[in-house]
Amino acid sequence: MLLVLPKGRLLKEIKILLQEIGISFDDSSRKLVMDTSIRNLKVAILRSWDIPKFVNKGIADMGFVGKDVLNELEEEENFYEYLDLKMGKCRLSLASLEKDSFSNKPIVATKYPISTKTFFASKMQNVEIISLKGAIEIAPILGLSDYIVDLVQTGKTLEENGLKELEVIKDISTRMIINKSSFKLNNKEIKDLIVSMEKIINEKVKS
Question: Which of 58, 116, 193, 198 could form a disulfide with 149 if both were Cys (CB 3.0 to 4.6 A apart)?
C-alpha cells in the first residue's frame, strides 16, 4: 500500500502521529518513495494539491490533505473522506481593506475559485473572480481586487497588511482520504490503521 503525505509544515506533525501508531520512516534522503516500519506500507511526500489526484487514480491507496484542497476538486471523487486529523486547523475567510465602498460587481482574488464562487452564489452576489497562486493579500493593496478569499490562521498577516477579516466561509483541517477500490481490497489493514489513528486523535482532543 502507498500512503501520500503533504509537504510543508504539517509533515512533521503527521509523522509524529504515524510514529505513535507504530509507523516510522526515514525522509532524510532524496528518495521519492520510502519504506516504512510496516512491511507492506510505503510513503511518498507530495504537494498538497497533487495528493487527491494520486488517490483518485488509485496510484496511492491513502493520503492526508487539507479540506481547502478537497473543496476545490472538480472531477468525480473516487475516494472516501474518512477521518479528520484535527491538524492544520484554520479557516477560509473573506477579507478586504478597511473601507466601505466597492463596485457593483466586486473583484475577488483567491487561490480557491470554486469555494469562492459557491460562497458568493449563496449570497446571490455577482462577482468577478481572479485566481492567484502567490500571496493573495497583495491583490487589494495594489488595487487588483476589492476582496480576497484565503486561509486565515491567526489573522496577523491580514492585520499587518491593513486587511480586515469580514466573514468565515469554512473551517478547514487535514483529512484522510482513501481510494474506494483500495478500501475494498485492503479493508482490514486500512480499518486497523484508522482505528489506531482515531484513538490517538481522540486522546489528544480530550487532553
Answer: 116
